Amino acid sequence: MFGRHHVWVFALLFVSGCQQPHSTVPTVGTSEQVAVVVQRQDFQVWKEAGGVVVAPADRIGTVQSTWSGTITRVLVSLGQNVRQGDVVMALSNPQADAAYQQAGVNLDEARAALKSAQASAESGLAGPRLRLDQARTQEKQARLAVQADQRPATRSVAMATPAEPATPSDEGFDNPNVQVLGEHTTPPQVRVQRGIAHPERLASDQLALQSATEARQQAELGVTQGERQVQQSLAPQRAAVEEAQAALKTADHARRLAEVRAPIAGEVVQLSAMPNQQASPGAALATIVDLSALRLQSDLAPADASTLKPGTPVRVSIKALPGQTFAGRVDHLLASPQSRPMWEADVRFDNPQGEIKPGLQGGFRWLVADLPNALVIPIGALRPGNTVVVNRHGWQTVTVTPGMSNGTGVEIRSGLGEGEQVQMP
């Protein structure tokens, strides 16, 4: 259907003698001729170009050996989809495997040594932490005692009679706070004194709280200094763990060199690796292509390229998939070298099922003109010199102005009228 370096023109609405009213007309030298009635119709002109399916260079990934060794496992098959970074095959590397295992053992031993040293150092902090807990408890008790001493308190005291002097206030109760009740009333008369619950114990309890606070602060300082000394004593063990972790990471990197990974995401379209096969560094073992990024490349004549531009919608067809078309758009147009006056078109298209593969032959078509209500005649009715034979009270040759052609019909812009009859050769 398609051929590279060739372009054809065709239409959605074919115009032919069998689609238009026609009649037979006697002519000299023949028994009859076919006359076609000129009609108006919606007329579309399409162009078509052939091409080949390709993948952009940056969407083709070559799986290469990173190590010299024997292929031990092939983890993919032809046509399988993979993600970038997936392990697709593995090579033998006994030295790297052994080094990785030993690095893991060394890390376990370093961690165990650190844990043992931490346990030993923590046991030395048991005494200071116990003394701190005791000091905090004593401080709390001393604070509660002071708070109990300072709790507000009141008591009632009998007042002196008018003939007797007032009794001095008891220690801890302030006379200005005395409230006289029932003055000038019948005895007995009382007064209320306000103060604190235990003024006689307050001073000693405050000294005890101060002493407990100082003891607690001293105990905290002892714990802080002990913890600092523990951290300093564990520095060698921690350094050993960090060194073992770095060694394990290095060994793991060396081991992973024997794991061959997918350079891009896509489908495995070529696979040459087999188990027990010898591989050298840089050897190509498989090819992966991102089938969602395929292009159809086509060569176009300048006249056809002039009807396209980036973004023009097209319909793509593939020879190996007859009857199917795929939506696409022109990605870009490039002029070929002057020694070969052609244009190169790249067409992007949908490939949702991954049916289309690189290297397949195909083509695309695009709409050049959409002419509603155009005056159209069969292309066979147009004679040399842009003339037609029309029946105007007899057959006569007239000159017309043709427009767009789709290979089957041709638009007539002037020289004919709707309903006239033109003669087919």
Q: Mind sketching the topology for me?
A:
Blueprint: E1 7-10, E2 22-27, E3 30-37, E4 39-54, E5 60-64, E6 69-74, E7 81-82, E8 87-91, H1 94-124, H2 126-149, E9 152-158, E10 179-180, E11 190-196, H3 199-233, H4 235-256, E12 259-261, E13 266-271, E14 278-279, E15 284-289, E16 295-300, H5 302-305, E17 313-318, E18 325-335, E19 343-349, E20 361-378, E21 387-391, E22 395-399, E23 401-405, E24 409-414, E25 421-423
Helix pairs in contact: 1-3, 1-4, 2-3
Please tag this protein with its features.
425 residues; alpha+beta; 6-stranded antiparallel β-barrel; 4-stranded antiparallel sheet; 5 helices; elongated; disordered N terminus
Task: Describe this protein's structure.
The chain has five helices and 25 strands. Helix 1 (94-124) runs antiparallel to helix 3 (199-233), helix 1 packs antiparallel against helix 4 and helix 2 (126-149) runs antiparallel to helix 3. It has 425 residues and is α+β, with helices and mostly antiparallel strands.
How are the strands ordered across the major sheet? 4-16-19-18-17-20
User: What would you report as the Rg, rounded to the nearest angstrom?
Assistant: 52 Å
The tally of helices reads 5
Number of strands: 25
- Mean of all residue-level pLDDT scores: 83
Percent of residues in beta strands? 35-45%
Write the H/E string, N to C: EEEEEEEEHHEEEHHEEEEEHEEEEEEEEE
The low-pLDDT segments are 1-31, 168-185
Q: N- to C-terminal separation? A: 29 Å
Q: Major β-sheet, in short?
A: 6 strands, antiparallel, barrel
The general outline is elongated
| Alpha-beta content class | alpha+beta
Helix content: 25-40%
